[in-house]
């Protein structure tokens, strides 16, 4: 039976674990390997690791770091950052990673998604779409951004997600730049819209601040990936650094309650 997934998302900057707010001002919060070890103990459903330097700086993926992460990780691992060629994607999968996340290279050329999907399997390809609400008196809707939000693409996020699905993406990840790091809740409207349109697995990221946000996301979208960064690395009103994750009983309760509400709609 398919069920919602609760997925910590770790951001790596200069090989350290960081947290951002609206993709800016990365704050160091620890060592990625130590975080992976703790999430192993807590039996997280999956883990996403995104290198936020690689694409912006035009660097190769850090294969040594990826190898260490994959060797330590006892849950499905998705890595993203700097993947621009099929050979890079194949090498990452060969290191023991289950899924490769691609963003700017996919958005620039959807056939790249097809090539990667053909090489490593559709189930191993996740396309990350970073979205930001348009601003201005006469502006509405969303923009798609890459390069840590610095480059704007004139394309509708839903149209892009459908294009990525058609091209061969096995999963689409929608990441809200506006909500990133604020811990005020997901963009539920965007999540619901994407869930209605897409036929492939969907993961939502950006803004989760409490477990109730995860339950609300499931009640809005049903079976969905609920990803979060700040929620799983901070604790309390002063955001003390503490790696945390719900235990199995609480996780099941959140998922079942959310699915029950979704079924009633």
From TrEMBL:
It catalyses: 5-[(5-phospho-1-deoxy-D-ribulos-1-ylimino)methylamino]-1-(5-phospho-beta-D-ribosyl)imidazole-4-carboxamide + L-glutamine = D-erythro-1-(imidazol-4-yl)glycerol 3-phosphate + 5-amino-1-(5-phospho-beta-D-ribosyl)imidazole-4-carboxamide + L-glutamate + H(+). InterPro entries: Aldolase_TIM, His_biosynth, HisF, IGPS_HisA/HisF, RibuloseP-bd_barrel. It comes from the Bacteria. It holds the Pfam family His_biosynth. Its EC number is 4.3.2.10. SUPFAM superfamilies: Ribulose-phoshate binding barrel (SSF51366). Pathway: Amino-acid biosynthesis; L-histidine biosynthesis; L-histidine from 5-phospho-alpha-D-ribose 1-diphosphate: step 5/9. Keywords: Amino-acid biosynthesis, Histidine biosynthesis, Lyase. Heterodimer of HisH and HisF. Belongs to the HisA/HisF family. PANTHER family: IMIDAZOLE GLYCEROL PHOSPHATE SYNTHASE HISHF, IMIDAZOLE GLYCEROL PHOSPHATE SYNTHASE SUBUNIT HISF/H IGP SYNTHASE SUBUNIT HISF/H. This is imidazole glycerol-phosphate synthase. It comes from Parendozoicomonas callyspongiae.
